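Thread title: Can someone regenerate the structure for this chain?

I was given the following input by a collaborator and told the matching structure tokens would be attached. They weren't. Posting the sequence so someone can regenerate them.
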Amino acid sequence: MLAEIGQIALMIALLLGLVQAWMGLHGAHIADRRAMIVADRAAIAQALLCVLAFGLLASAFVMSDFSVKLVATNSHTTKPMIYKFSGTWANHEGSLMLWVMIMALFGAAMVWFGKTLPAALRARAIGVQGLVGAGFVAFMVFTSNPFERLSPIPNNGLGLNPLLQDPGLAIHPPFLYLGYVGFSVAFSFAVAALIEGRVDAMWARWVRPWVLLAWSFLTIGITLGSVWAYYELGWGGWWFWDPVENVSFMPWLAGTALLHSTLVAQSRGSFMRWTLLLAITTFSLSLVGTFIVRSGVLTSVHAFAVDPERGKFILMLLAASTGGALLLYALRSGRISHGAPFRMASREAGLVLNNIMLVVATATVFLGTAYPLIIDALTGDKITVGPPYFEYTFAPIMSLLIVFMAVAPLVKWRTDTFSRIGRTLLILAGLAIAAVLATMLLGKTFLGAIGIGLAVWLIGGTLVSYGRKLRIGEAKSAIGNLPKRFAILPGATHGFALAHLGLAVTTIGIVSMGVWSDENVDRIKLGESVSVAGYEFILKDVTSRQGDNYSAETGKIVIENNGRIVGQLNPEQRTYPVERNNTTEGAMEISLLRILYAAKGEGTPEDGWIVRVYYHPMVSWIWIGAFMMAFGGFFSLADRRFGFVTKPKVTRVPAGIPAE
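Best answer:
Regenerated them for you:
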């Protein structure tokens, strides 16, 4: 009975989504206040119904209700409770249910937090959000019903992919979807603004926190996925340019460009058309990722293997939403003002270069991801685009981006002269060159030294800019007043510094991992060792143990350095009898400066066991820096000008900016 209630809730949510779309868009068109109120209430009701449907599906997983086909094919009574619950979204239909619920909740949030917006703009945006949400609910109702019954009812389920039975991956998809779907709010407001033919700085001020929220969640989601891939897959790597990894990375890159573009639109009244286009593109890339993952066009450990016929529905939804929005942009963007002019020596120009680099980087990743799919569709040939392509194309673009990121915040808005900051740039260049030389003196490679130099350059530029905001070094700014100056600075200023420093920290981790890591593999018996980077990994013992729903063969590996024991690792090989699958569980000895990683393969006492060991310097800095970037975004949300935490502060458009 609960499954039927969930299915009915989805059907009603579909109808409410259509009501929300019609009443919002048509009500704004005819200026009918009552119709717009109906759209608001429909959005809230749809959110409640979607939460109900998701809760009923989750309860079916928790209670192991195998009369529901989705539960029977993705769960088992012996699974730990956390994986029974996370199994709700560890499949095609359940993950769509999570997507739909989050989209409906964002629609309701637009109602709750959008009361200060012009009524017509708000109603149109809520209507667009309802229309896109209704498309996804229709996809579930007509092609991917999560509440489909199964008869006869099996005694037990088929289990869940063992790779997905991990705490990191249990929380990775919700954060990822909060990012993907969060960009739908910017998309909806961009379409609403195009319908009205009017965009101004207040529009950008309201959209920017939603972009910050989505970008921060997406950053966390990608980071958690990277951590999971590192220790769970047994590859000893944090990023492999897998197609499904790439489709989550593209919205992040475009979203980063959108984030900086909304800053200019809000502060200076410029980049209005460009900001609208980026808002459409960013969410469209999220939809592209949804299509690639669910269409069956690729095989990946991250992808859902589904019927390609379902992919056609998503493709039509993608074409309708993205194509419709781009057509509207082509027809109506001419009504949007270009915004205030600026010179090449200005912060706006620096942000233009920032956007260009990010868009080119996004296009590079898109080309490397889509090209094999296009060739397969046209000729049937199977080709792959591996890491070398991305390393030779993407890395130089991002290096150039880092150069501009350190300079742009030091330049004034609208007009400036580089001679004013020439001394500062020389000092920063000197620090970067010193970092390069010091790294090379330590015996490191030239390319790695350049990467460290770029990180130091970015750190220096960020700290100088942040210090100027705090007025450090000014004659009238006593050190004792520093806490007060820190407290009165806008949250976005603190968030900017934290996010840029986070990118520098991540850069150091990526360079160190990519250039100076080392690995070794050997077949060894008890008492024998395999060495890497001066560390001896000695296999002391191999034992068996029984887990909740698996059996494991566990190795005991002692790590020594110069005769001193520095740690012990217990890598495992697990066998899941229900799923009839084996997994390799790596083990790590973690410190701030390096991770020592070991993975044990198959073997016998007579022949020995295959043991693969890794030395990864500063790899944890990749994730520390990424979390710094995400928290920088959340910190910025506390900015009083956004009104998310405090009453919004009205931002006036500077004089001289033409009315939109």
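The first strand starts at residue 518 and ends at 524.
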